[in-house]
Each structure stands twice: as structure tokens, then as C-alpha cells.
Amino acid sequence: MSIRVLVVDDVADVRRLVRIALRFHGGFDVVGEARAGLEAVELATELQPDLVLLDLGLPDLAGREVLTRVREVAPAARVVVFTGADSEDRAYYEQHTEGYVLKDAELDYLVGLLEDVGRAGEREARAEFEAEVSTVPRARTFVRDTLQEWGHAEPDEALLVVTELAANAVLHAGSSYQVRLAWSPGLLRIEVSDDDPLTTPEPQPFSSTAESGRGIVLVSAIATSWGIETDGDDGKVTWAELSL
Description:
The protein is α/β, with parallel strands linked by helices. The protein folds into two domains: 3-119, Response regulator (Rossmann fold, 3-Layer(aba) Sandwich); 123-243, Histidine kinase-like ATPase, C-terminal domain (Heat Shock Protein 90, 2-Layer Sandwich). Helix content is 39%, strand content 26%. A five-stranded parallel sheet has the order 2-1-3-4-5, with helices on both faces. Strands 6-7-8-10-9 form a five-stranded antiparallel sheet, covered by helices on one side. Helix 2 (37-47) packs parallel to helix 3 (63-73). It is elongated. It starts with a strand and ends with a strand. The relative contact order is 0.10.
């Protein structure tokens, strides 16, 4: 998953250079750019980015105030300061952010730091299951135990999603399958991969007599987003993302 970045700087050329550097490096998605503190707070509220790259010399709000407000509206976001002049409050910012970089530093250093900060806290787990209906409860147990280990005590929605996706792999694809969990702050991605690239689950209109099709409707209602990715003749991945 890409690291979603909000770039906050009043200089358009700086924002452009950062955007280009992140794009060429890969693994980042610049979801917003702000020219001032109030705009940064508004965008942080709306976008809930993974990472905020924050200039301290903004025209409307002092650095501490911007940082405090961003923390309030986007508590899961990590903040890296990227400023043109060394601040007298540098020790404060180093203590209350995930990084402090001066603008005369190499862009490669900045991008590397952003990647380290953005990936910190990400977790991943995988498990393989046979093409038998009896393995679906085992897939649920794998998800429940993994999420509890990661600190999520009530993963009910995730259990519903993995049940439906695993059942689809067994009943419709007739395939063994793999369950992959990927967690980053605020987002859980559940993937179920199988060996059948042709049979894809589709939401069906409600019917009191239909014997299938309801599960994927439930997934689409629960998930923030979901989709299907095929890999030629090698199979497919059905995925869903949940906001935590």
C-alpha cells in the first residue's frame, strides 16, 4: 500500500520538487498540498493522511499551532518537519514529531526518512488453506488471533469479510487459497488469493430465493473499498479494505 502524504509548504516549487521526488521513488501517494496552516488542518481533517510533511514558516499559523491542530484532527498521521531555517524550538519538534529535516538536505535523504517513518508500524501476516469448506472457520481464527495480537480486540467486521472471501474461494473457485492481512495505521487490508482467474464474485440484487451473491454485497457494504485483481492465468486476488 502506498504511503499517503500531505505536503504543507507555502512555496510552490518546494511542493513540486517533493511531489516529483516521491513519485519517482515510488510507494507514495501525494493526496494533498497545502500552502498555509489553516488549509493544512482542513486537508488533514478531510484526507486523514498517513504522513504530513510540514514546513514551519507558514504565513498564517505558527509551527507549534499547526502541529497541534494537525495532531488533533488526524491523530494517526505521522509528522515530519521540513523547514528552511533551524528553529530555536528544534528540540521540541524533534520530541513531538517523527523527523526534523532542513531544506538544504539531499532530497534522497528526505525521501528515505519519509519511507522509514511511513512504513513504521506496518504489519503483515499470511496463511495458506486447503480447498475445503472446513478451512473457513480456521481462516476466521487466523484473522481474529492476528488482529488481537496487533491490538484489535473486536475485529468483527474483518471476520465477516474473510469468511465471505474465503467461502467464495472454496465454493466458487474450487481452489486452495491464501489469506493476507496488511495493517497500517488506520487501515486494514484483507486479501484472499485463489487459483481461478475466471470466476469472479459479483454483488447480486437482493432476492429472498437466491442461494449466492449475498456475501459480496455484505463485503461491499462493510468495506471502505474492495476489488478483484487478476494475474493472467495464475489466479486472482479479491481484497477489501477496512477503516480502523
